[in-house]
Amino acid sequence: MKNTRRLLFRTAAVLLLVAIAACMMVVGRGHTVYIDNKTLEYEGASYPAPYRATVYVKGERLSTLAARERGMSTVIGQRFSMTLELIEEKGQDPKTVEISLKLPYSMDGVILNIPGYLAGLPQEAWMSEFVSTPSEAEMQEEAPGAEEDILAGAEF
């Protein structure tokens, strides 16, 4: 009786953990999406950035990007939707573009290039993975072996 009860509780705990894992797979994982309004060079052609792009995510204004600027949004799940209000050249009326796409599961930080997407280029041209670069301070760390030299002269 005691062993049966213990086995029942252990089985219930494992099933609860499996149910939580299944729910987490449905909910999805988080992504940071960087939206670039920068001129894109691809296969020898140049795709200029719009003069101004206003980005709306879930109906809320995320940012207004001038040419050569980047905005950012955090998304939970594999789907990302945004609305762009684009002004191609100064003084023109804005046009609205709806964008909805599936984000790669393998990327945490995703960079979307607006001019590349609008030009209809392949996904590898306008979507890339964000890789952070080390800061100046991290680049100027001590030379390897410096600690060993200090410890070599110490008496214990």
Summarize the structure.
The chain has helices spanning 2-27, 114-118, 123-126, 136-139, 146-152, and strands spanning 30-37, 40-42, 45-47, 52-57, 60-66, 69-76, 79-87, 95-102, 109-113, 127-129. It is α+β, with helices and mostly antiparallel strands and 156 residues long.
Strand order in space, largest sheet: 6-1-9-10
**Which structural category do the helix and sheet elements fall into?**
alpha+beta
The portion of residues forming beta strands comes to 35-45%
Any idea of the CATH topology of the domain at 29-131? Immunoglobulin-like
**Poorly predicted runs:** none
How many strands appear in the DSSP assignment? 10
Give the mean pLDDT. Answer: 85
Number of helices: 5
Distance between the termini: 62 Å
Residues in helices, as a percent range: 25-40%
Largest sheet: 4 strands, mixed
CATH class of the domain at 29-131: Mainly Beta
The rough form would be described as elongated
N-to-C series of helices and strands: HEEEEEEEEEHHEHH
Q: What Rg, in angstroms, do the CA atoms define?
A: 25 Å
CATH hierarchy: architecture of the domain at 29-131: Sandwich
Task: Characterise the protein shown here.
By secondary structure, this protein is an alpha+beta fold. The protein has a domain at 29-131: Immunoglobulin-like (Sandwich), CATH 2.60.40. Helix content is 29%, strand content 38%. It has helices at residues 2-27, 114-118, 123-126, 136-139, 146-152; strands spanning 30-37, 40-42, 45-47, 52-57, 60-66, 69-76, 79-87, 95-102, 109-113, 127-129. The strands form 3 sheets. The chain has a 4-stranded mixed sheet. Strand 4 and strand 5 (60-66) form a beta hairpin. The longest helix has 26 residues, at 2-27. The radius of gyration is 25 Å and the shape is elongated. The model has no long low-confidence stretch (mean pLDDT 85).
